[in-house]
């Protein structure tokens, strides 16, 4: 079974991103979950899987300028995840830094031959400075006390840091870097993306980088770099000097951890801190409600971290080479879950100790059949050409069915639940919907609509014949639209 990046879906996202950048506009992103699909696109482009995006820093700078510096900034976007960590971001990775670097990259590409040398020198020292600014900012995103809630922010900062390193490795020779400089960048990239024997220690890398930054600061005035920007470089230089002296400000002994290991460790730590909300109905009178609420909280945590942290980390080790193995695409295709909405946990494949597993994708959903009146009485899903299990009653309630064309999929599911599964609404990408149930015995609202994902499975946890009869819980599974499986295709990679 072949797995590949979906050309149709990735090209759409890439087109939106490129148009926003070319037109000097900002991407309208208000939900933190929306960020993930665009970053996913850029990372896939860096691995050569999405044409037109670019394979390094320029793509990341454009992306970040597209959503990070708009009025609803990163502070606002991540407010619900960050709690009391406003001070962590500081002012090191700022809009001004990104806009300047973006313009310098553009100038370098457009300059005539006689102006190329000055443009090259400006690009080189700006790259050096921004790389070190980002390096200096990283410890602020992983202070021990707030490591879990700030992990999505850390992942975005790590994306920028690694993109800067990759561009230096790929284009440093053209920009005037020495062989030793490029070797240092490569050593730092390796150190940040995979645990390896023989990688130069953090202090050695910081020493090399601080030397380059000191030279950049000394020549900045001659290249007309704004004073306020140079002042931030000086702050970063002081931070690097502190690193070489042994005082990094990075708690938890995280300096020696590569980024992939770090995010997985903190993700697991966060699973031990998940807060369980009380169910909308009492567990004493409605057995299974408490168990469902518990797994629902873990599903919400897992899905958010997978979309906005773990998926990024899967790309990181392959950014420099630009090639990604099929096994990684399979991991990126991991199904995320929402629910159980209602009661009981039958069919849940995750727990309070284990996250969602990595499994092969099955045939796409082609139809949904629901029976309901006061509440939901029955449900069955058609996968490809075959109907799945019949959940609940196939006789009670009123029957409704919504078939999907080849280019259609469900992306937004509304659920009403409580004592029973009171009602559902399946909404597809062509603005067609199926609504069932009057929510007589389940009026608490929930929804599942992860951006860039589509519904790939649905399960009823339990059905009761006793009054009031009906289904009692619902689990929904989603996989990324960016990835598709071809049962008869062994090639992998990107489709045509």
UniProtKB/TrEMBL annotation:
InterPro entries the UniProt entry points to: Jacalin-like_lectin_dom (IPR001229), Jacalin-like_lectin_dom_sf (IPR036404), Pest_crys (IPR038979), Pest_crys_dom_I (IPR005639), Pest_crys_N_sf (IPR036716)
Domain Pesticidal crystal protein: 43-192
Keywords associated with the record: Coiled coil
One of the record's GO molecular function terms: toxin activity
Gene Ontology biological process terms, A to Z: symbiont-mediated killing of host cell
Residues of the Jacalin-type lectin domain: 360-430
Pfam families tied to this protein: Endotoxin_N, Jacalin
Regions annotated as coiled coil: 91-125
Stated name of the protein: Uncharacterized protein
Native source species: Fusarium venenatum
Lineage: Eukaryota, Fungi, Dikarya, Ascomycota, Pezizomycotina
């Amino acid at each position: 079974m072949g797995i590949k990046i979906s050309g149709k879906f990735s090209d759409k996202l890439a087109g939106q991103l490129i148009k926003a950048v070319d037109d000097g506009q900002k991407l309208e992103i208000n939900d933190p979950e929306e960020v993930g699909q665009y970053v996913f696109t850029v990372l896939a482009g860096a691995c050569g899987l999405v044409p037109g995006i670019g394979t390094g820093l320029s793509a990341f700078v454009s992306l970040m300028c597209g959503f990070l510096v708009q009025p609803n900034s990163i502070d606002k976007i991540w407010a619900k995840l960050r709690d009391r960590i406003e001070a962590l971001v500081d002012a090191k990775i700022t809009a001004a830094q990104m806009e300047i670097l973006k313009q310098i990259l553009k100038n370098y590409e457009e300059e005539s031959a006689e102006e190329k040398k000055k443009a090259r020198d400006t690009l080189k020292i700006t790259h050096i400075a921004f790389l070190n600014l980002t390096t200096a900012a990283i410890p602020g995103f992983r202070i021990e006390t707030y490591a879990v809630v700030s992990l999505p922010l850390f992942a975005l900062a790590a994306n920028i840091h690694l993109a800067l390193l990759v561009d230096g490795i790929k284009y440093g020779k053209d920009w005037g870097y020495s062989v030793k400089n490029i070797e240092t960048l490569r050593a730092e990239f390796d150190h940040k993306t995979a645990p390896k024997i023989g990688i130069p220690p953090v202090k050695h890398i910081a020493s090399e980088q601080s030397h380059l930054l000191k030279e950049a600061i000394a020549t900045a005035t001659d290249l007309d770099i704004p004073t306020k920007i140079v002042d931030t470089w000086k702050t970063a230089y002081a931070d690097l000097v502190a690193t070489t002296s042994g005082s990094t400000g990075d708690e938890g002994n995280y300096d020696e951890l590569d980024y992939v290991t770090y995010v997985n460790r903190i993700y697991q730590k966060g699973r031990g801190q998940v807060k369980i909300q009380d169910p909308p109905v009492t567990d004493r009178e409605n057995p299974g409600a408490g168990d469902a609420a518990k797994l629902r909280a873990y599903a919400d945590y897992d899905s958010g971290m997978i979309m906005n942290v773990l998926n990024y980390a899967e790309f990181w080790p392959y950014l420099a080479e630009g090639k990604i193995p099929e096994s990684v695409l399979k991991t990126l295709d991991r199904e995320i879950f929402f629910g159980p909405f209602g009661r009981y946990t039958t069919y849940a494949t995750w727990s309070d100790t284990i996250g969602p597993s990595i499994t092969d994708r099955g045939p796409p959903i082609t139809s949904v059949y629901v029976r309901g009146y006061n509440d939901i009485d029955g449900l069955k899903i058609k996968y490809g050409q075959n109907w799945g299990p019949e959940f609940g009653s196939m006789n009670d309630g009123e029957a409704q069915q919504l078939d999907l064309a080849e280019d259609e999929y469900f992306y937004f599911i509304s659920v009403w639940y409580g004592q029973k599964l009171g009602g559902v609404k399946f909404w597809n990408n062509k603005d067609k919907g199926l609504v069932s149930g009057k929510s007589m015995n389940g009026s608490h609202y929930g929804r599942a609509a992860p951006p860039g994902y589509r519904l790939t499975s649905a399960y009823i946890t339990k059905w009761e014949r006793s009054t009031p009869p009906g289904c009692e819980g619902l689990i929904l599974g989603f996989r990324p639209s960016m990835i598709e499986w071809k049962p008869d295709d062994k090639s992998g990679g990107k489709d045509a």
